[in-house]
Design a protein that fits this description.
Elements (H helix, E strand, L loop, with lengths): L2 H9 L6 H12 L5 H14 L3 H12 L14 E6 L7 H11 L3 E6 L9 H5 L11 H11 L1 E5 L6 H13 L5 H14 L4 E8 L8 H17 L3 E8 L7 E2 L1 H12 L5 H17 L6 H13 L2 H12 L4 H5 L9 E6 L4 E6 L1 H13 L13 E4 L6 E2 L4 E7 L2 H12 L2 E4 L9 E5 L5
Parallel strand pairs: 1-2, 1-4, 2-3, 4-5
Antiparallel strand pairs: 5-13, 6-9, 7-11, 8-10, 8-12, 9-11
Protein name: Pyrimidine-nucleoside phosphorylase
Keywords: Glycosyltransferase, Transferase
InterPro entries: Glycosyl_Trfase_fam3, Glycosyl_Trfase_fam3_N_dom, Glycosyl_Trfase_fam3_N_dom_sf, Nuc_phospho_transferase, PYNP-like_C_sf, PYNP_C, Pyrmidine_PPas_bac/euk, Pyrmidine_PPase_CS
Length: about 450
């Protein structure tokens, strides 16, 4: 088999066989095929696309290119949740304890943040002593005994995806539906969960800017999950403004804990309930979405999800005191506020700009090697549609560097636009894709 023939087939609009896809993924991962040939193939895929069988084959080949986590030793139905990335997105910190209380085994491998999007692993490391590097044995033990565990991705999880993504990044072939979908799903499949719930973000702070693009991606990923034998659903959710009010690692942890106590932002709670409802029904823990939603909200009302969070944090090296008094996690030396320049209604909060402002304050990574300030970030006072008076506080910023704080403040001020007339809110949930829809 020759890479030359594989490139020519796809360049001319042909369909690659499973054997051809397996060959190029294996040999490229092993260093036997040069970057320039794979770059040519990626460009051919970018222009010619892939059909369903090709995309599934590519996903499975990448998933099987390294370690595949076996969860067979876990007692019960295992579940995983993935977000396509957003601003203020701390749903895992809320949803995982809620689902674990209700008998779903939350076996979650998460990543770090890059750019304006946050990462669950960084947020959890706001707890002093918290370990995000569990051995496979400890990971499975915690899931069995506590009902949940969250660990960082292993270095050998879907290594083909890492190599291919790096090449896509420098050849401008990132924005390809089959390549995006296979990249995300290869890691989810390698992580081994029975049930996968996807949170596909849409809006200014998301990778997918339009509902049409988000729906296409959601459908493609659900189709892949179904083809790989995993129960999969995708919720398309709003990211035209930040989720909740807090943006930044420790700040988001504090807001997640407030939500687990039943005192969190409505949009955050509602999204966690929506995602969790599909998870519970898929795992056989509820007979309907309505029953699942009632059960999930019940874990917030009776405090059981909050207690599960304490159990989870302490099991991975954190302390109960830091969950009970999360303000201890904040160590920002400097704070400042931005105020409304006029009286009126908030028409838009450009979500990506808020994320970039939090990154500027020190709360995000510009490169993979950047060191982040876990206490830096932003807390919004108002959301889209709210009425504000001139000079009323819009948001508070936190940083440990005055220069960064001032730069972040200037950037954040530009994220807002205003209207003299009331502004209708955009829906939180734009749609749901299940296996029935494919």
């Amino acid at each position: 088999m020759r890479m030359y023939d594989i490139i020519k087939t796809k360049r001319d609009g042909g369909v690659l066989s499973k054997e051809q896809i397996d060959y190029f993924v294996k040999e490229y991962t092993n260093g036997m095929i040069p970057d320039y040939q794979v770059a040519a193939l990626l460009m051919a895929v970018y222009f010619q696309g892939m059909n369903e069988a090709e995309t599934l084959a590519l996903t499975l080949a990448m998933a099987e290119s390294g370690d595949c986590l076996s969860l067979s030793a876990i007692h019960g139905v295992t579940a995983d949740k993935h977000s396509t990335g957003g601003v203020g997105d701390k749903t895992t910190l809320v949803l995982a304890p809620m689902a674990a209380v209700l008998g779903v085994k939350m076996a979650k491998m998460s990543g770090r943040g890059l750019g304006h999007t946050g990462g669950t692993i960084d947020k959890l490391e706001s707890f002093p002593g918290f370990s995000t590097a569990l051995s496979e044995e400890k990971f499975i033990q915690n899931v069995n005994t506590i009902g949940m565990a969250i660990t960082g991705q292993t270095g050998n999880l879907a290594p083909a995806d890492k190599k291919l993504y790096a090449l896509r990044d420098v050849t401008d072939t990132v924005d390809s539906l089959p390549l995006i979908a296979s990249s995300i799903m290869s890691k989810k499949i390698a992580a081994g969960a029975d049930t996968i719930v996807l949170d596909v973000k849409v809006g200014s702070g998301a990778f997918m800017k339009t509902e049409e693009a988000a729906r296409k991606l959601a459908k493609e990923m659900v189709r892949i999950g179904h083809g790989a034998g995993r129960k999969t659903a995708a919720v398309i959710s709003e990211m035209d403004e930040p989720l909740g009010f807090a943006v930044g690692n420790a700040l988001e942890v504090i807001e997640a804990i407030d939500t687990l106590k039943g005192n969190g932002p409505k949009d955050l709670e509602d999204l966690c309930v929506a995602l969790g409802s599909y998870m519970l029904v898929s795992a056989g823990k509820a007979d309907s979405l309505e029953e699942a939603a009632d059960k999930l909200r019940g874990t917030l009302k009776d405090g059981s999800a909050y207690e599960k969070m304490i159990e989870f944090v302490t099991a991975q090296g954190g302390s109960r005191e830091d969950v009970e008094n999360p303000q201890r996690l904040l160590h920002a030396t400097y704070t400042d506020t931005i105020t409304a320049p006029k009286t009126g209604y908030i028409a838009h909060i450009q979500s990506e700009e808020v994320g970039l402002a939090a990154m500027t304050a020190g709360g995000g990574r510009e490169t993979k090697d950047s060191v982040i300030d876990l206490s830096a970030g932003i807390v919004l006072n108002k959301k889209v549609g709210d009425f504000v008076k001139e000079n009323e506080p819009l948001a508070r910023l936190y940083a440990n560097d005055k220069v960064k704080l001032e730069a972040a403040k200037n950037r954040l001020a530009g994220a807002y636009s205003f209207s003299e007339e009331p502004v209708p809110a955009r829906p939180l949930i734009h749609g749901v894709i299940t296996e029935k829809d494919i």
